[in-house]
Amino acid sequence: MAEQTLKEKTAKGLFWGGLNGGIQQLLNLFFGIFLARLLSPGDYGMIGMLGIFMGLATVLQDSGFGTALINRKEIKHEDYNSVFWFSLSIGCICYVVLFFCAPLIASFYKKPELVNLSRVLFLWFLISSTSIAHSALLTKKLMVRERTKIEVSALFVSGTVGIILAYNGFSYWGIALQTVIHAFIGSVLRWYYVKWRPTYSFELGPLKEMFSFGVKIMFTSIFSQINANIFSVLLGRFYKEDQVGYYTQGNKWMTMGYTFIWGMIGNVSLPVLSEVSCDVKRQQKVFRKMLRFVSFISFPAMLGLAFVAKELIVISVSDKWLPCVPVMQLMCIWGAVMPISNLYTHVLLSHGKSNLFLYNTIILGIVQLVVVVSLLSLGIYYMVLAFVVVNILWMFVWHYFVNKCVEISIVDAAKDILPFGLISLIVLCITYFVTMSISNIYLLLVTKVLFAAFLYSFFMYLTNSVIFKETFDFFIKKK
């Protein structure tokens, strides 16, 4: 009965996670197209330069305690309460520090406009610090339906405001205020859906108990943010803001696709893997099924996105963004593998191996930084290419440590992952030759998408894919 309950919870979480991701990315696509047509690459570049500061402040306000709450077997009011007051305090401190550091940031990039822009944009993490504990509770309780309502509502309201501001000539201020409003709406709705409320008593005990695990997650996240924003920093410092904008736009399209896939499974994988972490064989079975599911979705979606990148960019945001296409295509290759990499890390976290998560991320970050900086003079394309290659190769390192937890060999992992990747590549090659004579760009995009989707489904049916059959049966039952 317990197994069935876990399966139902996981299936429900995947369904609502997929629905959430799908709606979010449709809204992101809708608002992103309007904003990209209204704004210039330089406007996106101005926001992109501040990404690393936003990311680091967000990590510090959470300090790994959000993940620690999710991973905790037994949890009490005092645990949530301590994390709430800690996150709020750190959020306030970070905002004050960055508020007064704004002139230094502007000086580093040689952009005086960044002083006021950063002070407004940084309100985002100050506001979001009020709902860190509430967000952890939503994930812990697998309240994926409520998360869907929260995130979609916040995105719709903030996106509408962003378009109105951009249309009226507010340039990059439209993106900044859109970001702040998104945080405000999201925090308000988390308080609405989560009935838990903080009390004025503050205890250090729960934080001490979670400190060892949480601090490693915090440092890991810091390095992850540095890795994720290294291009924006280097391009912003040594190139023009247009180059930052092209990178930001290309990476944004990849992120939309990746977020849909990881949003489907990311809010479910850690709680479920933690629940079965005491039974190695059972966790191995759950992990391998998740591995097959995410590969089944990720490879055709992300490689397909790279395949139609040129047509998609020209049709949606105009040819002024064409320089972002090569970046988008390379990042999509990494985006196809990234959900699998994240799934590996969730296995380590479910076993409390936050130290391995930390050390691997630090070493990976150092390797990435050295490689990317060494290619700085060659331009953004070779920098991104090196970044993608290093991250894909690092999958073998993640696998080595996960194998020690759930006893899955590289051959078994390859059997779960590679078939979907190979079939996706075959499908895209066939589609390329079938559609290469089509000159109309609109017809070309539609034909590529429909033909590739049909062919991939046909191959899944032909190879009698269990994941394909179970996914199809699940949605038939939903209807």
Please tag this protein with its features.
globular, 479 residues, cell membrane, single chain, mainly alpha, 85% helix, Lipopolysaccharide biosynthesis protein, Poly_Biosynth_Transport
Note down, in words, how this protein is organized.
The protein has 479 residues and is an all-alpha fold. It has one domain. Helix content is 85%, strand content 0%. The protein is globular and about 70 Å long. It starts with a helix and ends with a helix. The model has no long low-confidence stretch (mean pLDDT 81).
Task: Write the topology of this structure.
Layout: H1 2-38, H2 41-48, H3 51-62, H4 65-71, H5 77-109, H6 114-121, H7 123-128, H8 132-140, H9 144-167, H10 172-193, H11 205-238, H12 241-275, H13 280-307, H14 309-317, H15 325-350, H16 354-374, H17 380-393, H18 395-406, H19 410-435, H20 441-462, H21 466-478
Family: Belongs to the polysaccharide synthase family.
Keywords: Cell membrane, Membrane, Transmembrane, Transmembrane helix
InterPro entries: Poly_Biosynth_Transport (IPR050833)
